[in-house]
């Protein structure tokens, strides 16, 4: 894509899965890529493979270092780092706090650091890796579902607030993707997500299609659009259907 040729791109949570696939795709399209992970060892091989730069550390705090590594200019920021927090309403406070910090506040902090430059020059692109759980909710994962709703809401707010000033925003909302996060979802993931799981590279393809078409919502599983419409049309029916799924999961011995 000519739109990313030579662009400065940051991908957080690039140690594997969707993040690594995004980094590889941006690099293949001619971008200069900074890869981030808490553990530098997880991204050194990837950086060598794609000719990228390693900036390790907390995704909430790396914008300045990434900007320096890209000669002062970040054009695309992929807020991809995420935390798969299972549990219900009784999950411990620290589980909720960690999910909120990684899945929502890291996006807020990055945007706060990026926006002044983007607004001054009239261009910038923020990519939020959210989840279909942020549109539809996921059984057995209250902290994850709630915070992914927050990630989608923040991405939507960014777009509606700054779109006319040149800031483009994309919210990626896949269902199951064959990554460590799917494995971490346990029996609920096996029941709901595994049957239609896709490879991380398909998520990168979906993002680039959305960028070509200037679409906010990125749905690597196109059927999610129909589910989302059904949920909006008849919320009670939707919740009832999801409750039946919850019961099926419980009966399976989850």
UniProtKB/TrEMBL annotation:
Keywords: Oxidoreductase. This is SDR family oxidoreductase. PANTHER family: BLL7251 PROTEIN, RETINOL DEHYDROGENASE-RELATED. Its EC number is 1.-.-.-. It comes from Streptomyces mutomycini. InterPro entries: NAD(P)-bd_dom_sf, Sc_DH/Rdtase_CS, SDR_fam. One of its GO terms (molecular function) is oxidoreductase activity. Belongs to the short-chain dehydrogenases/reductases (SDR) family.
